[in-house]
């Protein structure tokens, strides 16, 4: 558990538009009262005997006073503080109460056990990710030797604006209303006449050229007209493959 | 290699992630005890292979072996995914003493560990064992073992010492 000693003056937070700097947080890491005691003893280069614990009481209490300890864990600090004070009192006013004796030896005992896990945690910390065993598909996305981007991607507001513009460009135009009056296209008869007129002066026509620019409906009617003429043997159709150029030859 | 170990190996390979003993037992229609035995056999078979078997109390997963860890590390990205000191301390207590209740974790660490447990759970480094009417127990996950480069928790440094320590047991049971 962290004790966050948050120095407000070091926090810079600009919530202006989309630009902001992450706050700088000063962290003093004491996971709990045991951790703090072990650390204090280390600093003083002493063991955690009863006599030494007494000497650590002041710095322990000072730490609690000076730091805002997380409410979730403050209780455990106070419990230890009371035991430390008990040790101090006992040395000034010697008494034989076994209850107190137990409480003090219990704290010492707990500290000695805690130290074992504290030490092993450091060993495991060094091993963490040093030589990891990897799961299947670890490199599945071509991650060999490629470092993952961490933190905020480097994106400018221009890029975002560009992406938005790109997106806007891709929005399809609004559909044409389907229920309105449309000009009626030329009839089959009209188109047949048109083709016959053209074939009077030309020997052949490219179908695609004759319908370029006409409406879909007119294109369909023209196609039917051409088929009709072919059926009546007035023209011969030639096409190399599906959707390729269709040539209309006058017979 | 018996056909059972072959089938387990094949299932674990195709799963590509941790599979519970009970799932294996159901899929293969074989009692869990036999599954555990076959897993031990498979683990032994895989010695000196590029692949290895990671097992917890409940799960098994095929992963790359310790022998190739250093070789593979050159391709893997370094750093990241670090654990805070407090998180590592909590994980250590759970690794050695698990399955363990939050109460006992607090007792060893001398401090409330709820937030740390939540964090570790979110990162998939713990397994929560719920039994109705009892406090949840926590145990180290195969993911955490893999980060530590070991295939079972018995390979943790000083595992015998710390996990079986009567001293610590006295500590965690006296408040129950």
Topology:
The complex is a heterodimer of chains A (251) and B (176).
Chain A: E1 3-4, E2 27-28, H1 33-44, H2 50-66, H3 74-92, H4 98-127, H5 157-169, H6 188-201, E3 204-206, H7 207-211, H8 216-231, E4 235-239, E5 246-250
Chain B: H1 3-15, E1 19-20, H2 21-28, H3 32-45, E2 51-55, E3 59-64, H4 69-73, H5 85-97, E4 100-101, H6 102-109, H7 114-122, E5 126-129, E6 137-140, H8 142-148, H9 159-163, H10 166-173
What does this entry look like structurally?
The complex is a heterodimer of chains A (251) and B (176). Chain A has helices at residues 33-44, 50-66, 74-92, 98-127, 157-169, 188-201, 207-211, 216-231; strands at 3-4, 27-28, 204-206, 235-239, 246-250. Chain A is mainly alpha-helical and 251 residues long. Chain A has two domains: 3-127, no CATH class; 188-250, Arc Repressor Mutant, subunit A (Orthogonal Bundle). The N and C termini of chain A lie far apart (96 Å). With 176 residues, chain B is an alpha+beta fold. Chain B folds into two domains: 3-73, Arc Repressor Mutant, subunit A, CATH 1.10.10.10; 85-173, Arc Repressor Mutant, subunit A. Helices cover 51% and strands 13% of the residues of chain B. Chain B is built from ten helices and six strands. Chain B has helices at residues 3-15, 21-28, 32-45, 69-73, 85-97, 102-109, 114-122, 142-148, 159-163, 166-173, and strands spanning 19-20, 51-55, 59-64, 100-101, 126-129, 137-140. Chain B has a three-stranded antiparallel β-sheet with strand order 1-3-2, sandwiched between helices. Chain B is globular. Chain B starts with a helix and ends with a helix.
